[in-house]
Design brief:
The protein contains 21 helices and 24 strands. The longest helix has 24 residues. Helix 11 packs across helix 12. The protein is of the alpha+beta class. Bound molecules: zinc ion. Zinc ion binds next to loops.
Amino acid sequence: MRRLSKVNYEEVGLKVGLEIHQQLDTKAKMFCNCPTKLSLGEPSKTVIRRLRPTQSELGQVDPAALFEFQRGRMVLYEIDNETSCLVEIDEEPPHELNREAIEASLLVSLLIRSTPVDEVHVMRKIVIDGSNTTGFQRTCIVAQGGSIDVDRATIPINQICLEEDAARKTGEEGLAVRYRLDRLGIPLVEVTTAPVIFSPSQAQEVALAIGRILRATRRVKRGLGTIRQDLNISLKEGALVEIKGVQKLELISVVVENEINRQLSLIRIRKELVSRGLVEDDLKKEFHDVTDLFKESSSRVIKEALKKNGVVLATRLPRFSGLLKTELEPGLRLGTEMSDRARFWGGVGGIFHTDELPAYGISEREVEELRSKLACRENDAVVIVADEHRNCRDALEAVVERSKEALRGVPDETRAANDDGTTRYMRPRPGAARMYPETDIPPIRVSQNWIEEVKAKLPPMPDVLIRQLMEEYKINKKLADQLVTSDYLEVFMVIMKSTSLAASFVATILTESIKNLEREGVQVESLSDRQLVETFQLVSQGVTAKESVQEVLIWLSKNPQSNPGEAIAELGLKMLSRKELEPMIQRKIEDNLSWIKEQGERAEGRLMGLVMGEVRGKADSKLVAEILREKLAGVLGSTKSTV
Ligand SMILES: [Zn+2]
């Protein structure tokens, strides 16, 4: 099937809503005194937990989580004393809600014209994937309503919440998942827009605008993973699909575009199935043991499954022939979606389907025998899976379920964003109302006085800030704009206060150069504020040259525990001091004394060239010129006096 080259978003009824989660840069976590930073290095200990939600909780849990729980999901928590305490492992009750975090979210709320609540109540949201040791995430509404202006449109805001971040997933082996507790409890502010965004580029602009406002508060963390976007995307004839965890703002329009194409392709597949005369009753959960057909197969996957006493099960998907290979978004076909489901519900490695066979070591003869054994007609497809019997059954059940959904159109589901802007199946969309009150934590009153206090600290909005930066630092609009959008405005201001460097030089490094380094694969997010500030201070003090900054930053990104002084020493980028330059310049003059005396004051230019040729990048040219002039005056002066 052909992909539409240009989609009319209004015609297809596109609606997008955003949920932006941003980590706050508070001193302590939301419910304890642990610092809000991630651990480097190996964990000091690991504990194993089996999830045991209570009966009343299970009633509200989404079917996918329940299924995982019943399968015996095991969770390993990696603990460091430096970044977690007994609260994170749920062995001590949570402390009072962190007021610094509430204040930061009030700042955000007031900037987007949202109305703060009178009392902040902590609620529990059930999450049993193990990412919270308690089995729920704590969240509270801080403000409701509000709006932001983006490009002549006014986008309404639904609410502002304060939430605790979940533990950080570090691995998965079979039924065991690994989480690091350092991230658990870091406060997040969540901004939710109404679903009134009508194009991929508008979605990105709104996200950028919210991101800029969040940064304008200067109370948020920076770097990859500190801001995460969830998108709700729906089409008129499609479904509401939730996409989780887009980490880069620049990817949002791509994600929306891909999801539109995916839904449109699924709608076309539905129409095709209907026109082929398929009805839901034709799709039966009938599974055939076809192990015998593949006894001699050269397929590696099948051979391995049979070696472990596994089986090969097959199911017929009537009238699906040719549709499983339909591409929905780059690299993702309807067959991939079925495979994702089979993996999720059956724990198998994947599936084979006849649209892609013969291949993967499965021969044409095997395919023919398979089709004839299942009494296939011309336009039927067959899906096979090789694993333990029970896993095969679960996997094929999920495949038939997905094929029924294909006949209905686009399934409601939660998908996860991949790094390239495509998405993958995560779980069915959980129902609403999965919250209930947290009884361990008293509510916090938001008095009018407190709001007035926060109002007095309100930072300027991004456009005002840009004008202020242009005026105060004499930089152009483009640079000021980039600074406000970047993660480094705060760092820029600290550098400007503590050095005598030109603002445009500092701003260019912090925006354009850092972006370029990131594009080249340098881990710029591991650079700390302190490393950045110290690097510029050393340039300002003449310890290293301006030209060395990028090299120093690259080295520091690979050595996050080191300081810029060490980087400069390690890279040999130290500038020569006056004390080191003086004897060197003295020697140069003495070596060339004859022509210097001939040329008199005109000798300065040529000498400067000679000296700089030797010390370029290692000495400040102003300092060299200064010393040179002094020494030359001495020599020429003495010449004059002897005449
Ligand atoms: Zn703690």
